[in-house]
Design goal:
Blueprint: E1 3-7, H1 14-27, E2 31-35, H2 41-50, E3 55-59, E4 68-72, E5 76-84, E6 87-94, E7 100-107, H3 115-125, E8 133-138, E9 148-149, H4 161-169, E10 171-173, E11 176-178, E12 183-186, E13 192-195, E14 198-203, E15 214-216
Parallel strand pairs: 1-2, 7-8, 11-15
Antiparallel strand pairs: 2-4, 3-4, 5-6, 6-7, 8-14, 9-13, 10-14, 12-13
């Protein structure tokens, strides 16, 4: 079973659509989670159907910002538990093998002034339960110095919201395959910055804990 999470930074261009189609063809995911779609429900549903997904749920963008989309095919049953502009919380039943997971699809705020409120809200909103649990998405946070290259040096004394969240919820990083960084950008002076902002977390009680990994196939 394969799941895809991608910060597409708008589904407005043909290039982005082609790139997404290639990623889906290569990985053949049962569920696709898209962040910063900047799109309305009708457009997301149309694109999802063109790419072979029978079901679509979306949190529409606010003006020209944000937007989340979740697509899935008929190999899984998905129940929406909760949602906001930062989160789609789901219960997923895999029809083959009939395993049931809780999967929280997360898009963390990129704005420093919002991070304190966001992480307090997320910690209150997401409470561990009885099901195996995964949290997947673009958390817009790094934890360790080696997860960043270029730009201002990593400050180990800064508040590590994601590390605190992991500890509170008994989650561990699934690790990854492929590129070490999932985002890159340039400052006005031309300095290239690369960071690992996307990841998957899994709780200790999950049956596949420690065995899974994510594939970092491209940059946002």
């Amino acid at each position: 079973m394969s799941y895809l999470s991608w910060n597409c930074q708008a589904l407005g261009s043909d290039l982005t659509i082609r790139s997404l189609k290639e990623i889906i063809k290569r990985n053949r995911p049962s569920i696709v989670f898209l962040m910063e779609t900047k799109a309305k429900h009708d457009r997301l549903k149309k694109i999802s159907q063109e790419m072979g997904f029978q079901e679509c749920f979306c949190v529409e963008s606010l003006g020209q910002a944000g937007g989340l989309g979740l697509w899935w095919d008929n190999s899984v049953e998905v129940q929406i538990l909760d949602f906001s502009k930062f989160l789609i919380d789901t219960e997923v039943k895999e029809k083959e093998g009939e395993r049931v997971w809780r999967i929280s699809w997360i898009y963390g705020t990129p704005y420093n002034e919002e991070k304190g409120d966001f992480w307090r809200w997320l910690s209150n909103c997401l409470q561990p339960g009885l099901l195996p649990w995964m949290c997947i998405g673009d958390f817009n946070e790094i934890i360790w110095e080696f997860e960043k290259k270029g730009g201002r040096a990593f400050n180990p004394k800064s508040r590590r919201y994601l590390q605190d969240f992991k500890n509170q919820k008994y989650l561990m990083d699934m690790g990854f395959q492929g590129q070490a960084y999932t985002w890159r950008g340039r400052r006005a002076e031309g300095v290239l910055i690369q960071e690992r902002l996307d990841r998957g977390l899994i709780n200790y009680s999950s049956p596949e804990c420690g065995l899974g990994s994510l594939s970092n196939s491209g940059f946002n």
